[in-house]
């Protein structure tokens, strides 16, 4: 906008000729402290726009004969559009590449200090410290560096530059949120920074699932409403934010779980794990994948070789994934196989060894995550088996497998 106004202030028609000005270089300096680079760049762009319009295409020997002098024309236009600054000195060095030098000084009151007031009214009080911690090192500090040294009168044209830059910084620092700004310009300015959700995908529902190695789920399920209420601070938060700050959000929940009366009375150790989506599932207990229905369709191309396709349906949250693989029978009691899942782009090498009809072991090695998973299998009957599973990430769980 500033550069466009500068161009409109000129009425010079360029002429073409031998030895004409083909390129213009601008040097802008300041008396006293220079403003932030985004302000300096806009001023340089303004001067360049004026000088380029005036000089490019003009024969070099005519530059010195222009009336009024080109430096006067440039200075007058810059004085009119760069409110808050005045041209102290201007010079034009003519040539095929002409150099325009401008020295500016601030006019009137200058912003000397900025207090940033962050408004988080749309966010639960338990979550506000997490967002404030993300804002302090970046957006709040950058707001002060953008504004200190800026003439108060320059805010009308410099404000959109600063607020757009700060908005992008906030959105990068706090995923799923954006910011609104209101500056009360003065030597000691106050910047009101309002943080609001940007994404339409927010946490709307909260479900609770318990997992325990020692307590029957029947006893735990009765506490689901109380545990769900502990997660109310997450309701309305952007899904992208909860996903990015999962550890911090789990810490908020764990603090409440640690002081939950039944947990204190019976000395129960409870830990929260978030499965983030618009419907949020809260797992309490050891980490483990959720239930899944797996269908494997294969064809024996030889007695030892079986290529197959595997489909996996996860009910919560609903997801259907597929994989292709091949299984090789090494002996009647041992198999090796490899599968590739296109959606996560994972390749898994696995082997199974049966020690008896009812007891076996299995090992998986997955790339590129490089996670090893081992399992011991104990068959209950023709349709059911228990698997005791652990992996190299330090997780362990028990799985009931039903073969339909």
Summarize the structure.
This protein is 29% helix and 37% strand. It is α+β, with helices and mostly antiparallel strands and 404 residues long.
Query: How many domain units?
Result: 4
* Element pattern in H and E: HEHHHEEEHHEEEHHHHHEEEEEEEEEEE
Shape: elongated
As laid out across the biggest beta sheet, the strand order is 10-11-12-13-14-15-16-17-18
Labels describing this entry:
11 helices; elongated; alpha+beta; 9-stranded antiparallel sheet; 3-stranded mixed sheet; 404 residues; 37% strand; 18 strands
Structure description:
Helix 1 (2-8) packs parallel to helix 2, helix 1 crosses helix 4 and helix 5 (128-147) runs antiparallel to helix 6 (155-173). Residues 7-18 and 279-283 have low confidence and may be disordered. This protein has helices at 2-8, 37-55, 60-63, 70-81, 128-147, 155-173, 217-221, 224-230, 239-244, 246-259, 261-265; strands spanning 23-30, 85-93, 97-106, 113-119, 177-184, 188-197, 205-210, 272-275, 279-284, 293-298, 305-315, 318-331, 334-341, 346-354, 359-367, 371-379, 384-391, 396-402. It has eleven helices and 18 strands. The strands form four sheets. The chain has a nine-stranded antiparallel beta sheet, with no helix packed on it. 29% of the residues lie in helices and 37% in strands. It is of the alpha+beta class and 404 residues long. It has four domains: 2-106, no CATH class; 113-197, no CATH class; 205-284, no CATH class; 293-402, no CATH class. The longest helix has 20 residues, at 128-147. The protein is elongated and about 105 Å long.
